[in-house]
Amino acid sequence: MEKTVDAFSMTLEQWQDMAVGVWKEPRFRADQVCSWIYGKKVFDPSLMSNLPKTLRERMCGLIRPPAQITETVSRDREARKYLWEMADGKRVESVLLDHGEHTTACVSTQVGCPLACAFCATGQSGYERDLTAGEIVAQFIAVEHRLNKDVNNLVFMGMGEPLLNEANLFKSIRILSGVGTRGLGARHITVSTAGIADGIRDLADFEVPVRLSVSLHAPNDALRNRLMPLNRRIPLATLVDSMRHYKKRTGERITIEYVLIEKVNDDPQLAFEMAALLDGLGVYVNLIPYNTSAAAPSGAAGAFRRPSDGRIKAFCAALSELSIEFEIRRSKGADIAAACGQLKSRNS
User: Fold this and answer.
1) What pTM was computed for the model?
2) DSSP state, 35?
């Protein structure tokens, strides 16, 4: 029976139920098992020395992390990209970013992505299925296992749209933030969404107060429809209304992700439109100069390109004039296709 369990999808309470109801062991056995998995990053029951030998034997094969296919390290060693294979053979990528004083793991929530954003390689590669809560959790813990140390921050910003896999996303957050499992602080967890308004409202009411990041990329419906087909179904007015609900409920500042594409969405006038659209939200803007290798080669305005330094500077000047706090995100891992919009479900 145990061998059919998705061990990484189990909360502490579920482990306790298994300990008492299935193993006929004391409840504290669950705490011991979780300490090995989430504290020591040990997945082989034979090495769990404080468990009875009979239980270790019974647990053989129970804890199955994804198989690591490749690990690719950027030239500056600030990014590591992992290709994982799940039990059914489906593959996803996740990324570790080294910021010097802290580390961040970027994990996937779906195999591929159904949103087909014009500038994103993941979306262009299609969608296969949602990941289970255990498959999401296991990516993070497997990265820590590879490093042999804890990772400080978690962002759901890999392959897929997290809020289209809401039940498994929320359960993975409960497990990774839970006392007795990984215990990662809620303020160290960020959910990034392309604009699933109902999901943002649910996140506002979620019991774990994680951070929210919204991929905007255009401040008007006409342009956003071109770049992000999702906008035809969930237009900006609906998205912004859900963001205001999140802000009112949580008091947390929302981060806006904005990929700058030359002569597509980098006109300074669009910064003024963004300010009007998001008035009163007090957002923080991450500007991401387009990663040229990220996606399909063309859009309505021709090939997508990274803006010149001059165009980036002009857009930033407009944001400064409007007193919008922002930063230009320095891409990590672009040389190994690990930067924003570059992840795929196959080794490339």
Assistant:
1) 0.92
2) I
Q: Which of the following is catalytic: 25, 34, 93, 113?
A: 93
Structure tokens, 185: 């602080």
Beta strand pairing call for 110-112 and 127-130: antiparallel
Under 8 Å CB-to-CB from 309, ≥6 apart: which residues? none
Q: What is the pLDDT of residue 329?
A: 83
Domain spanning 2-58, CATH architecture: Orthogonal Bundle (1.10)
Q: Give the CA distances from residue 159 to residues 44, 76, 102, 193, in Å, rounded to whole numbers and listed in that order.
A: 28, 23, 22, 11
Token pair for 209: 């107060």
60 among known catalytic residues: no
- Pairing between strand 325-328 and 302-303? unpaired
Residue of 34, 113, 120, 340 marked catalytic: 340
Where would I find the H helices in the chain?
12-21, 28-34, 53-58, 121-124, 133-147, 166-177, 197-205, 221-227, 236-250, 268-277, 309-321
The pair of structure tokens assigned to 191 is 């959910």
Query: What are phi and psi for residue 42, nearest 5 degrees?
Result: -105, 125
Q: Which fold does the domain 67-336 belong to in CATH? A: TIM Barrel (3.20.20)
Question: Which residues make up the CATH 3.20.20.70 domain(s) of the chain?
Answer: 67-336
340 as an active site residue: the answer is yes
Residues 169, 136 contacting (CB under 8 angstroms): yes
CB atoms within 10 A of CB 61: 11
Model pLDDT for residues 255-313, shown as the tens digit of each residue: 999 999 999 999 999 999 999 999 999 999 999 999 865 444 444 434 799 999 999 99
Q: Choose among 114, 83, 80: nearest CA to 97.
A: 80
* Confidence band of 250 (pLDDT split at 50, 70, 90): very high
* Residue 191 vs residues 84, 232, 325: alpha-carbon distances, Å: 21, 22, 20
Mean pLDDT, rounded, of the chain? 92
